């Protein structure tokens, strides 16, 4: 098969699994077992098997229903819920579920502090907007994950939270001094290193006030060796972020060499094996020519082998599941439900969430699963359920708009101003109230857009559990809170909350 051919050709030390690696509905456990069995025919050292299972929306999630891995809400939802104990249980449960199917490394937690509300790629992937809450919950998560035998990888060092650009598509820059970086971005990483996190992933971001050569941290000896190893005394594995992201503006092979020279142990590529082959060939040539010294190479090899031994990955080790693993996995559904409910955020008058029986409720929801949950748990005979806003574009207003009292609940993942402005104008014309239902980036609500709504219910995550929690709140069974500033710097309808 293609997979066996790639393994034979590259002889990698590890694999990152992406959605396109596994056929829909297939078991990831069976796929992983086959890869490990094949690689052990040519080497006594098994593969690191990693996934991006951060919680909430995931950029690279290969898991299917067949894998029976609980889809917990986002980090920010967990941050709003605010329970370190729950986050530890989440890590412990997920670690056990992943390790049972052969995944021994999870590229999480995200330890970025979302201090910039315009951040397009971190936002709800962060535990919060201040370093303290990110450190507390990030450490709880990684301790739980690693207690189940799955290595945690903290990311994105030294911090991706204060940028308005996405390193998947361009090279971001953060203009902070060393003192500023130490106070905010590095604080959660210091806590994670002290707690014994197994790995750290570098960010493809430049810091011109600290390093003037324009190199991203991934390719910087100053960040990956002088700061990470010498100043912060981190002894675990260091990984690059995906080396085929647009932020890396070098040929793949040269970028891989520069990352190793900077001090990185593992070079990560999620794309074509052709690029991976180019990386390997260029690295081998750099070692043979002496550009990468044997000492530099051996340092990383020993770190990788050490972590494979620590997490019972080597071939002579039989992984022993911790005694309490079964307890955590048995209560996964209950934990997920509680975290999803606790992660809901609401701004606006409480009465709009559960209005009196004589009020006509109109649900405009294009998400099939949320619409199903509303039909099962919320909808009654007087309610109107629509799939989208297209019916509002005609010259005549819909009949329900002329009812005496109407509350419209409109769902979106991405806030599109034009159609929502049309709904807002209709609401003013007929005296209706409009409540936003959002499972996407909470920082889409700005001083310019928040006036479109009378209320806003945010799930901070679009997992099934988070959408069910949203329906539960609409049924009046749960009253979400509005979290304090500055831990979660949300702009929402209604009066601002008190500071924490």
Automatic annotation (TrEMBL):
GO terms for biological process: carbohydrate metabolic process; peptidoglycan turnover. Pfam families: Glyco_hydro_3. Its EC number is 3.2.1.52. Residues 4-306 form the Glycoside hydrolase family 3 N-terminal domain. Belongs to the glycosyl hydrolase 3 family. It catalyses: Hydrolysis of terminal non-reducing N-acetyl-D-hexosamine residues in N-acetyl-beta-D-hexosaminides. It comes from the Eukaryota. Keywords: Glycosidase, Hydrolase. This is beta-N-acetylhexosaminidase. GO terms for molecular function: beta-N-acetylhexosaminidase activity. The keyword Amino-acid biosynthesis does not apply. It comes from Eutreptiella gymnastica. It is an enzyme of class 3 (hydrolase).
């Amino acid at each position: 098969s293609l997979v066996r051919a790639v393994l034979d050709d590259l002889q990698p030390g590890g694999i990152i699994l992406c959605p396109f690696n596994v056929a829909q509905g297939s078991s990831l456990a069976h796929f992983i077992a086959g890869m490990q069995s094949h690689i052990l025919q040519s080497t006594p050292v098994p593969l690191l098997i990693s996934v991006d299972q951060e919680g909430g929306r995931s950029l690279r999630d290969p898991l299917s229903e067949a894998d029976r891995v609980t889809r917990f809400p986002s980090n920010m939802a967990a941050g709003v819920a605010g329970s370190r104990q729950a986050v530890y249980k989440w890590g412990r449960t997920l670690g056990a579920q992943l390790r049972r199917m052969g995944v021994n490394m999870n590229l999480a937690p995200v330890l970025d502090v979302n201090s910039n509300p315009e951040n397009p790629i971190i936002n709800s992937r962060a535990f919060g907007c201040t370093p303290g809450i990110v450190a507390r919950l990030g450490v709880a998560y990684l301790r739980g994950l690693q207690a189940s035998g799955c290595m945690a990888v903290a990311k994105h060092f030294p911090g991706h939270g204060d940028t308005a650009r996405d390193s998947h598509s361009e090279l971001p820059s953060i203009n902070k001094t060393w003192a500023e970086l130490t106070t905010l971005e590095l604080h959660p990483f210091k806590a994670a290193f002290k707690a014994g996190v197994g790995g750290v992933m570098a960010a493809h971001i430049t810091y011109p006030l600290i390093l003037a050569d324009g190199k991203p941290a991934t390719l910087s000896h100053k960040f990956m060796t002088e700061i990470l190893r010498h100043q912060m005394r981190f002894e675990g594995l260091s990984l690059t972020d995906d080396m085929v992201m647009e932020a890396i503006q070098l040929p793949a092979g040269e970028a891989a060499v520069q990352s190793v020279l900077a001090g990185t142990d593992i070079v990560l590529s999620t794309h074509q094996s052709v690029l991976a082959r180019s990386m390997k060939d260029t690295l081998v040539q750099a070692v043979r020519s002496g550009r990468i010294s044997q000492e530099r190479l051996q340092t990383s090899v020993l770190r990788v082998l050490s972590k494979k031994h620590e997490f019972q990955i080597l071939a002579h080790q039989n992984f022993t599941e911790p005694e309490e693993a079964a307890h955590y996995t048995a209560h996964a559904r209950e934990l997920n439900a509680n975290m999803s409910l606790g992660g809901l955020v609401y701004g606006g008058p409480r009465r709009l969430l559960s209005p009196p029986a004589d009020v006509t409720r109109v649900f405009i929801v294009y998400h099939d699963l949320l619409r199903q949950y509303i039909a099962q748990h919320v909808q009654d005979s007087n309610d109107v359920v629509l799939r989208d806003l297209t019916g509002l574009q005609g010259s005549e207003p819909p009949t329900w708009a002329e009812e005496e009292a109407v509350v419209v609940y409109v769902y979106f993942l991405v806030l599109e101003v034009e159609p929502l402005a049309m709904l807002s104008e209709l609401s003013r014309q007929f005296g209706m109230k409009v409540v936003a239902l959002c499972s996407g980036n909470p920082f889409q609500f700005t001083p310019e857009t928040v006036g479109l709504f009378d209320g806003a219910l945010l799930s901070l995550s679009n997992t099934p559990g988070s959408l069910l929690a949203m329906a539960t709140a609409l049924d009046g069974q749960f009253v979400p809170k509005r979290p304090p500033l500055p831990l979660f710097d949300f702009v929402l309808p209604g009066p601002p909350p008190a500071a924490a």
